[in-house]
Amino acid sequence: MPKGSRLCNFDCIYCECATGSWPLQWELRPQFPTAEDIHDALLASAETLEPDELDSITIAGNGEPTLSPYLDAIADVVNAARDRDWPQARTVILSNGTMCHKPGVR
To answer: Alpha-carbon torsion 30, 36, 42, 45, what sign?
Structure first.
């Protein structure tokens, strides 16, 4: 998700991302991390984590991850890294579920 801001279509008071100190970026053009950004971050993590130290890789961020236009490519990158470096780990998407009707999210 965008660094330093949050992007969500909800504003839930119980959400860990809804701190009140970040502006809701729904109508702005946020800078989402690309699949390449995620790939690089996972490579760096693979250098510091042992294969058995990870039980899941969660796609979350500062708001709703399914709003990212790169979600499909990011999921592919995450799953490839998981299969290569942490085969016992699960891939999880922390979502409010409101975009599940979109084919690219399913």
So the answer is: negative
